[in-house]
Amino acid sequence: MHFPGAHILSVTQFDRNDIETIFRVADSMAPYAHRERMTKVLDGAILGNMFFESSTRTRISFGCAFNMLGGEVRETTSISASSLTKGESLYDTARVLSGYSDIIVMRHPQSGSVADFARASRVPVINGGDGENEHPSQALLDLYTIEKELLGRDRGVDGMHIAMVGDLRHGRTVHSLSRLVQLFDDIRFTLISPAELRMPETIVNELRERGHEVVETDDMENGLTDNDIVYLTRIQEERFSNREEANLYRGRFRLNQAIYTRYCQPNTVIMHPLPRDSRAEANELDNDLNQNPGLAIFRQADNGVLIRMALFALVLDVCDRVHDTATDIHWYTEDRF
Ligand code: NCD
Questions:
Q1: Rounded to an integer, what distance in angstroms lies between the CA atom of residue 206 and that of residue 35?
Q2: Which tens digits make up the pLDDT trace of 49-87?
């Protein structure tokens, strides 16, 4: 795809070359994200970071990624604090906000809302998560992490076995990740969920049509065996009609060190988009895995900055100039990575 000026709305926009391009630019961002060097390539540029739904990592890491390229960030952090509660349409909001910034990242609870917003925007828009539909930057950082973790085990993405666990019906991260990974060859997907929370049929069909093996099960223990990657997800409580309904599924699938040792092959990479629900009634990913070297969840979160810097650099067309304005950092930055 042609990146300069493009909206980034769905992983279906990318082919394998595009992924490779994004990942190599992400690699080149490491000195800046790791606070060894700083660049002013986006000095004067403004990001409108519009989050109309809860977020910690995605919002902050998009904001920091922009700052690390030298740009400034303006934010909205809830629907209730914006004019959407006064009945303003997304069209009007997009027309107005796109006059105030050079690029917009947007998260919104409705599927398709970010694409609607992008149609009315005068500047590029990046989807930070639209309802249960898609979360493209998360899928990119997940795949980037998978590649790195498997490389350390002398393996590649082609031919890998991945298990996805939890609320596969509402989880936009697993929707986007499945659609992205399907560009590779001979993947085995083991989809572990309660019957009511299965991966949407259209996605399962797409995976099978592309020649991948898909196993759907509600038997976690059997499903965990023989995987390179186990990707857990949270029950997406905010997508249920009420808390009681979400409670029916909360805590159904849990991974801890004892279960890992018993069922997973040694070295299995454990992933989660975060936040993990650590309340006792859920505890989907136990803290006793924190010392497990296969636990990649914080490496995922770190990689998010590199991927988001790469997206900004590509869409705003500054990849070639990032290093021109680079200088050393002179404050304390040791031992972070
Ligand atoms: C995810 C999301 O918002 O879809 N979080 C994130 O962006 N890392 C997953 C979740 O909230 O469960």
A1: 41
A2: 999 998 899 999 999 999 999 999 999 887 776 777 788
State the pLDDT at residue 77. Answer: 82
**Shared domain check, 254 and 308:** no
330 is catalytic: no
Buried b (16+ CB within 10 A) or exposed e, 241-261: eeeeebeebbebbebeeebbe
Q: Which domain holds residue 39?
A: 11-134+303-336
- Tokens of residue 188, six digits: 């085995």
Q: What is the mean pLDDT of residues 142-166?
A: 96
How many domains in the chain? Answer: 2
**Residue 6, domain member (yes or no):** no
Same domain for 91 and 63?
yes
Q: Is 138 in the pocket of ligand 1 (CB under 6 A)?
A: yes
Distance 143 CA to ligand 1 centre (A): 15
Q: Any idea what the CATH number is for the domain that residue 106 is in?
A: 3.40.50.1370
Distance CA 189, CA 223 (A): 10
Give 83-128 pLDDT, tens digit per residue. Answer: 777 888 999 999 999 999 999 999 999 999 999 999 999 999 999 9
Please measure the distance between the N-terminal and C-terminal CA atoms of the chain and give it in whole angstroms.
Answer: 32
Same domain, 128 and 142: no
**Cα 18–Cα 24–Cα 29 angle in degrees, nearest 5:** 125
Compute the Cα dihedral for 130, 133, 137, 138 and give only its sign: positive
> Ligand 1 within 6 A of 234 CB?
yes
Going by C-beta distance under 8 Å and a sequence separation of 6 or more, which residues neighbour residue 127?
Answer: 7, 8, 9, 10, 106, 107, 114, 115, 134, 135, 136, 137
pLDDT of residue 245: 94
Which 8-state DSSP code applies to residue 158? T
Q: Is 274 in the pocket of ligand 1 (CB under 6 A)?
A: yes
Q: Name which residue sits closest to atom 12 of ligand 1, judged by CA.
A: 234
